[in-house]
């Protein structure tokens, strides 16, 4: 079952978004009709902007790659915050989570088709494009040509759609990068100024994304923003990344706890990890990823386009030991995948994120493996209605 850390997201985002209420975004295009869920907030925003003579509206988002690990949950958060009609989810396949189809607009979109990207952005009157479409590290190594097309052509098409905006200012683009931009030359602790020499085609596409986004910001005024995510950990299946073992291990542990609670016999089959037990890599919880991404998107334009960020670092063995605090019989065997292990060995152990903390207050809550395990194994799903308490904000 798709899981979202709703309680923590609600608590943190309410504070963050309330703080952002003092900021406003002005457009030269006229306001479209707001959804019922966001009508009162949109009306208040319009009243506030009347004194300045500017036309203001609630932000509207086009999200590419919406059916991926991050996309499903970010779309849900944006819709619950800004209204169901605010966010057009897109991808090249239908989502397995029917909530995405039931709760708001959805459209097929191949990001390598530039005309289609621009057409949907114009039809939705998008003020922001959230570009998540990509092939992750391990999958990209198996399909390098496709990874380059999606990563490079897709990014160019999104930036062109942002620059060539019908009747208004350039659209804001948020497109995450990754620790995959680093290679062995970056050292064990990598940061914003570290050498970029990726070892994978996925990393190459992310370097291209960062540089092209910075170019469009300087030349065309596109407000391009990007975060170099480490491994993002949630209780959902990954999409072919090198750090997916962490989610697989935690989901295996969750299933054992569920079986115990139901009085079923738990499996005696050990979990098989595809990385060596001492492979030390940086990670961030999905909860923190959602909160901090919305914070970053909502901040005044930061000095940098791209920031390195992290939450915590650990090895498979350390995560295993954290799980054993609650499931003593939980066993793991290690059967390293040559491709993924080589990729992992080329990445840094941790990331230096002082600039993100200084410039826009990057502040993840989960900083230890024990805290991550406790969050994923023992949180309870909140009512969907609970998210309606998130206050409306105007994203910068």
Automatic annotation (TrEMBL):
Matching InterPro entries: Epimerase_deHydtase, NAD(P)-bd_dom_sf, NAD(P)_epim/dehydratase
Question: Per its UniProt entry, which superkingdom is the organism in?
Answer: Eukaryota
Q: Name one GO biological process term.
A: L-threonine catabolic process
- Tell me where in this chain the NAD-dependent epimerase/dehydratase domain is found: 62-240
Q: Which GO terms describe its molecular function?
A: L-threonine 3-dehydrogenase activity
Which family does the record assign? Belongs to the NAD(P)-dependent epimerase/dehydratase family.
Q: Name one Pfam family in it.
A: Epimerase
Protein name, as recorded: NAD-dependent epimerase/dehydratase domain-containing protein
